[in-house]
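Input record (Table S2, row 280):
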Amino acid sequence: MSLPLAPNLAMHDGHSIPQLGLGVWQVPEDQVEANVLAAIEVGYRHIDTAQGYENESGVGRAIAASPVPREQLFITTKLRNKLQGYDEALRAFDDSMKRLGLETLDLFLIHWPYPEANRYVDSWKAFVELREAGRVRSIGVSNFQPEHLERIIGETGVTPVINQVELHPHFQQRPLRAVHEKLGILTQAWSPLGRGRGFEESTVLTIAQNHGVTPAQAILRWHMQSGWITFPKSMTPKRLVENFDVFGFSFTPTEMQAMAALDDPGGRFGPKPEELNVPF
Ligand code: NAD
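Output record (nicotinamide-adenine-dinucleotide complex):
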C-alpha cells in the first residue's frame, strides 16, 4: 500500500526534511533492510539511524535496493559517544558513510552531549568542516540542553538545524522548545509514541474516537500539527501504514489544548542528557 508523501519542513540552512519518517533503533541489522524497504513502499522517505544502533550497513543495503532514487530519500545518522572529538568524529563519519554506502549524508547529529568527556564542541567543529566540504548537507544535535546549545553556538557561530529530543504527550519539552524557537532550531521528537504510554490515556482515546483513528495515529497527528519532526519505530507492516496515515484529519483547537494539558515536566523516561555519561 502506498500513501501520499509527508510534507517537508524548511531548515534554517536552506535544506528541507520530511516531517514524518521511520526510526530504526533496536531494529536488528539483519532485519532493518526489509523494514526500511517496507517503509519506503508505504511512502516513508526519511530514515533515522545512528552509529550506536549498529544497523547502518542494513540501512545502506535498503538504500541500494530501493526503487526510490537516493536523492528522494533523507538519511540521518548520529555520532556515538565513544567516537566524540575532532579527529574521531571525522573518522567516524567516513566509517558511517562506508556502511551506508553514501557519497553525501542528509543529516548528521551529535547523539548526546556526553558532558563528562567534554568533547562535544570539538565534535561540532568537525561537523562544521564536514558540512563545508559538502560531505553532509545539514548538521544538528540530539539531547542537547540549552547550556550545550549555547556553548557550541558561542564557540563556533554555527547553530544546529535540529535538536532531536525525547518528546511525547507526557513530556512535551516546553522550556527547551522555547529556546529552539528563539534560535531557529527545529524540534525533532524521539519516542514520539512514548513507546506506547498514553495509548490508554482517556484524552487520547476520546480524540482518536472523534476522528475514527487509533491512539497511535492521534498522537502522531498531534506531533505533525504541532510542527515537530518525528519518526516512530515499527517493524509491523500494518503499523507502518497506520503510522504514516495521519494527514487526512485535523485536530480542533480544543483537542490541541487537551493534548497540551497532558504535559508533565517530570514525565521524561529516558536519561537526563546532562547526566548521561556512558561511552556507548
Ligand atoms: P516510539 O515512541 O516510536 O515507540 C515505538 C514502539 O511503539 C514500537 O516498538 C512498537 O512497540 C510501538 N508501536 C509503534 N507503532 C505502533 C502502533 N501503530 N500501534 C501500537 N504500537 C505501536 O519509540 P522509540 O522506538 O523509542 O522511538 C522512535 C525512534 O526515535 C527510534 O527508533 C530512534 O530512531 C529514535 N530515538 C532516538 C533517541 C536519541 O537519543 N536520539 C533515543 C530513542 C529513540
